[in-house]
Amino acid sequence: MSLNHDFIHFLVVTTFSFLVGLEVKSYRIQHKITQKENLFFGDVRTFSFVGILGFILFKIDSKTYLLYTAGFLSITLLYALVYYKNLQDNKRSILLYIVMLFVYSFGALIQTQPLWITALLYVSIVFILNINKSINKLTRNINVNEFITLSKMILLSAVILPLLPNTNTIPYIPLSPFKIWLAVVVISGISYSGYILQKYFFPSKGYFLTGLLGGSYSSTATTVVLARKAKQLHGYPVLDAAIISATSVMYLRLIIIAFIFNIDIGKNLMLPFVLLALIGFLVSFFYLKREEKLQEHVGIVDKNPLELKTAFLFAFLFVFMILLTHFVTKHYGTLGLEILSFIVGFTDIDPFILSILTGKLSITVDQTIAAIMIATGSNNLLKAIYALWFGGVKNTYKSALWLFLLGVVTIILGVYFEHIL
What we know:
Strand content: under 5%
Oligomer: single chain
Helix content: over 70%
Shape: elongated
Number of helices: 17
């Protein structure tokens, strides 16, 4: 015999309402909110009855919803009286009133929407009530200007991006303005995610984790900062491990970018780049285990990768690389592309890699993969030079040597890609 749906809905609403009441009571105890400090009507039983009331009123008047609306207005009126009293005592919070309205809505949600929506609302209430301390800690460390920049990028991405023409309207460029800016948004989003993780969620987890997270958005900047720290501390194996791990993460990051813009190229890059990343991680762990890890934190870059100037500069470099690569491949063929890839590796390689992934150039898949590998390898040579320059030969020669070896191997794989894989 199956249970009646209304009976099941009633039990769910009552249970969720009761549990929310317990959470509210726990919240008040945790934050030492007494009746004298912040006047508020209701406790565990009140929240339970409010949930039941919402269910009954919605059930018996499911056509006009007048009774249900009257219940909502009654709760609001009661709280308005309480809130007026709180204002006299300089208490302005409406958090618990909002929670009670959510509980009141359980009855309507359970009868009109799938069960998971009510369950999700309950879980969200409990989660938000219990992360108050974490939110306060996070907001104290947040640079407000960074999130203003994020808002601008969301505006440019979610509002302006759909308005850009998706036709090739720019002379000599085989991409539409929509696809050009979409590429900028994707790369900026990947970099921004790593930046936020490193700066706000794992801000003081030691040098090695700093290297891992820093490599997710700028392995070059990470190498420079860690090399400078190695010079200050006169070298430590954990810093060598962090520098190498940043480059290892870069290989994985490039695989993700390739999959986003060209699945076939992503599949071909996966094996060699995963192997190279694995070699880097193994070497990193070897140095990491050689002595006790330093736990002092080092900031990678205090610069938001979503800054508008950076985004527009990236877009300009992206378009420039499309034109340059098209010119080189047309007049100098495969050898010219390989030389260009090697030279570009000593700059920011993301615009170049995007240009050959999305630029609809007259090159084969193998040539594209080879160009990406050569550029990645020469970029590793650049980081090896940076490690020695900013860290000093004595302090960072080990990590620089491994970056150099990874770079050389990557370049060789690129040059002989068609014959090796």
